Amino acid sequence: xxxxxxxxxxxxSSLITVGFGVWRLFVPKLLNFPWYAYVIIGIGISLCVxxxxxxxxxxxxxxxxxxxxxxxxxxxxxxxxxxARPRYSPMLHYQTPSGETYTLTSKxxxxxxxxxxxxxxxxxxxxxxxxxxxxxxxxxxxxxxVGLVLEGALLVVMTGVYALTF
Length: 166
What we know:
The chain has helices at residues 2-31, 35-63, 138-141, 143-165, and strands spanning 66-78, 87-95, 101-105, 120-126, 129-135. The protein is α+β, with helices and mostly antiparallel strands.
């Protein structure tokens, strides 16, 4: 009975010793980071947290949705304020099992029409509010959130490497 407790305490003691050794190795370098490194790392962590929150929210939304197939019938054109080139968002029709037809305009827009007319696309919609729908592919559902996480992680890692080397 006593032997497992002693073994657990010995393991905990060795982990604390290793942790303290790692702490002593990196803390002096962390304290010598330039002030702007902390700001950039904070921004990177914020981007990661925001992206993870978006992924979580989208995943929870998808748990309560139904799937159907929509057909691209056109593109909504937006004026681009930074230059003369227009932006295009795909528009599609989709039908629920009850027979009601809805129109969906993608939240993502492109410099040229990305999807061809007549292309069938998966659609996720909320069964109690079928107008609450999105094109159910990786690009439309996850790209923004995954991009935020990757950009934030890149900021944190690159700033840490930069600060540790100087």
